[in-house]
Every structure is written in structure tokens, then in C-alpha cells.
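Q: Convert this sequence to C-alpha cells.
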Amino acid sequence: MAGLLDISSMMTAEERRMAIPPELEAQIPAAQEVDLHRLDLRFDQVRVLDPRAVEQLARSIEQSGQLIACVAVPEQASQRLILVDGYRRIAALRRLRRDTAWVESWACDLAQALLSVLARAHGRPLAAIEEALLLRELVHSQGLSQHEVARRTGRDVSWVSRRLQLVCAVPDSVLAALRNGSVSTWAATRVLAPLARANTEHAAQLLEALDSTPLSTRELERWFQHYQSSARATRERLVAHPQLFLQSLHARDEQRADQRLRDGPEGRCAADVGQLLRLITQLRQRLPERGHCRNSRPPSLGSAALRLVRRVRVRRDLPRARLDYRGG
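A:
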């Protein structure tokens, strides 16, 4: 998820200049060195934490210094600066035990600064959840309508609405795990959010289990597929020990692979014949009486399939099919 937390930390100076809205370019003074305690980090909770990216950025700053300034707007009621962009750089500076950061102070209101962050995401995209959290701040805290946000960010209203639905559907506990990097956006929106709507307790249990034993996206997808088709008693075990369940599935898959290897292609053919015969048995049991079929037949079965099913005598042909197979 490198590059999602901090929009411009990997941008060149030219890219950064091109990303600044024209109406703000003339209002931006040169960057100044600011004590970290003067920065208001109120939007820290709407950014996704990426410890690996912070570590990489810290090494870069230690070697070359802070190449790109952070962005802030002044808070009128105090001498503090509200940090709008550069949270990953601040985290890297704190890791290096630095006391100051280079900051650009934009002469605009907070809403305009946040809108500019979203508009600049066309060049360096934010995570979908970060966009959603910024939009929620603009709509709920700054009082802008969805139409106004869409117009001022160059998006359409449907995009704004979809992003807001995304963050509204995710519980606060899942959002916290998403911000600290415990779960991915996919896991939060595709697994944990729907699970929380259906069973809050199970979602909390799964979140706790993932915190101690993380699962890959593929593993979590497979786990959720089994959860959806499992009975209540089984679901309790699934949420309590997801890693153990996946390990048992992996062991079962290995056993089946070993069995297929031992049986070879002949064994697979025998298994396919058995499946066909069982399917024909089920179809014969579901078919109506022969006399009724002359006048009407199920639309899902063609005449050739009907004739085939009527001619097969499963109980007599199954042993004979096995003998024929073994004989040649």
C-alpha cells in the first residue's frame, strides 16, 4: 500500500507544481520550518498507516533530507497549523526523532484544502477508504453538499455517493484496523463489513483473530466462502480459529492431491463414471411417469437426454460398467 498514505511524498517538484490548483498557486508561500508540536494532526485517523512505507521514507529523509514540504492551513483560533497532506512524512520525521518539518501554509479555508487533496489524487491515487473518509469530513464536518464536493473535485455525484456508502458500511472497529494496516480495503469492504451487518459478534471475533494471525486476501476469501455455506455451530469454530480451519483445508487438499496422484488417470475416469451414474439416478427419480412424458416433458431436458435416462438401468449397469472398465 505504499504511496496511499501520502499523496505527494513520491512526486517530483514538477509533478507537485502541476498538481496544485491554479487558484491556490499564487497564494502558496515558500515552505517554512515548523515545530512539530505546532501541527494539528486532526486527520491522522482518515489516513491508512503503512509502516513499511514510513520506514522507507525515514531512510530517504535521513540520507537526503525532507525533499517535499508538507501542506497545512492556519487555524484562525490559534497559532497552530492544520496538517492536510504529509502525514507519512511526519511519521517518518518522528521515527527519526526530529523536532521540525518543512511545511507550506496554504492561504485558503480547510474545506478548499481538503478538496485540493482529493483533486490531486488523480495523479497519485489515495486508497478508496481514504477518499471516503475525506469526503465524510467534507460533507459532515465542513457542511458541503455532495453536489458541491463533486463539482469542486472534478468528480460526478455518483462517485461521491458510492465512496460515502463505502465508509458508512464499515464499522468503526474495522475502520481502525484498516487505518493501522491490520486488514486490507478488500477485506474490510468484502468480508468484515457484510459480516458485521449480519453478525457483529462474529465480525469482532474475526477481527481479533486477524490481528494475531493475519490471513492473505485469497485465504480470507476462501474462509468467507465456507462461512457463508456453514451451519451455526460450524461458524462459531470458523470465527474462533480461522487459521486452524484453513490449515485443515490445506491438509485435506494435499490428501486429495496425493490420492489423485496414486490413482492416476484411470482413477479419475472411474470417479467421473461414478458421478455420472449417480446423476442419472437422481434424474430418473425426478422424472415423471413414462405415460405422462409422452404428452409433456420438462423444458430443461431435451428429448435425447430423456431417452438416455430412460434406457439406463443404474442398478444393473453400474456393476457391469465397473467390470468393463477393469477388463479393458
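The longest helix spans residues 242-286.
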